[in-house]
Amino acid sequence: MMSNYSTNVSDCSLVELPQKHKIKKMKSILLKSLSIISPVIILAVLGIMQGVWFDVEEYIERGDTDVFHPSLIQYLLYYLVSIVLFVLSWLLLKHEYKKTSSAFLRVVYSIILVLDIGIILMCFLAL
Fold it and tell me: CA-CA distance, 75 to 61, in Å (whole number)?
């Protein structure tokens, strides 16, 4: 008896195509959501670093203001994290900006990039 099973390689690719499409769609959704919430991520990371390392009020309450000064390594790490967050945000928004054809979304991505730059500059100047 002849078997109904096919050994054709092209039949296997039909099964993988929907999976690749799902992965591509999920990647697109993830990149869009990351680009939209990037100002919140930047603000949270830099805010936490400022609050932990450069909180002067805590040392004023304890009376240790003359003793405590953040180290140079803490400042350098803070500025390095700021620069890395800016570059990642810029690359992500540039990718989304080029990929979209909608004028409205291009304006939204441009506003988000300006907001990211503003947040990073304010955090830079706050120290």
Answer: 23
Compute CA distances 96 → 27, 61, 104, whole Å.
Answer: 12, 46, 13
Per-residue pLDDT of the chain (127 residues; tens, 9 = 90+): 555 555 555 555 555 567 888 888 888 888 888 888 888 888 888 888 887 777 666 666 666 555 566 778 888 888 888 888 888 888 888 888 888 888 898 888 888 888 888 888 888 777 6
The phi and psi torsions of 122 (rounded to 5 degrees) equal -65, -40
Based on DSSP, count helices (H) and strands (E) in the chain, helices before strands.
4, 0
Closest among 123, 118, 124 to 47, alpha carbons compared? 123
